[in-house]
UniProtKB/TrEMBL annotation:
Domain Nudix hydrolase: 1-141
CDD domains cross-referenced by the UniProt entry: NUDIX_Hydrolase (cd04685)
Organism this protein belongs to: Kribbella shirazensis
Residues annotated as signal peptide: none
Cofactor(s) needed: Mg(2+)
Cross-referenced InterPro entries: NUDIX_hydrolase-like_dom_sf, NUDIX_hydrolase_CS, NUDIX_hydrolase_dom
PANTHER family xref list: GDP-MANNOSE MANNOSYL HYDROLASE (PTHR43046)
Name assigned to this protein: 8-oxo-dGTP pyrophosphatase MutT (NUDIX family)
A GO term, aspect molecular function: hydrolase activity
């Protein structure tokens, strides 16, 4: 059964998205991915989003988010395979310097840093970004009206 996860598109006033830079302890492969994580039993998406934003970036006040995407995904990291159902929320935030407040031991071993990315840079980078089509998806969000309901971005 897939684990429910929340993923956050933290966008600053210049339409840059905050991504986490991490390294797989087993393969040493590096990647970039949005803030977020598992939703705990009994926890709402909003509560999970606020908790993850605080733990991973130190952002204490997370503005209300807008549901934009959903995705079913299987990923492998640190020798583990995990099936997740992701709900993606877009949050407009003031630009800030991330300072993790409460990384798990696992995250502390894997997180290398953070960077605010422009959609066009994500679309052309040779670095590994998850999801791989994030630059194109973000460009679409920024140039069109937000969807009425979350759009499924699962790639098959």
């Amino acid at each position: 059964m897939a684990r429910l996860a929340v993923k956050l598109l933290l966008l600053d006033a210049d339409d840059r998205v905050l991504l986490i830079h991490a390294k797989d302890p087993q393969t040493q492969a590096e990647c970039w991915y949005p803030v977020g994580g598992g939703v705990e039993p009994g926890e709402s998406l909003k509560t999970a989003a606020s908790r993850e934003a605080y733990e991973e970036t130190g952002l204490a006040e997370l503005p209300e988010g807008t549901p934009v995407w959903s995705r079913d995904h299987t990923y492998e990291f640190d020798g583990k395979v995990l099936d997740v159902h992701e709900e993606w929320l877009l949050h407009r935030v003031d630009h800030f310097t991330p300072a993790p407040a409460q990384l798990s031991d696992y995250e502390a071993r894997t997180v290398l840093g953070f960077h605010w990315w422009r959609a066009e840079d994500l679309a052309t980078t040779t670095e590994t970004v998850f999801p791989p089509q994030l630059g194109r998806l973000l460009t679409n969000l920024l140039t069109h009206a937000l969807p009425d309901r979350p759009r499924d971005i699962t790639t098959r």
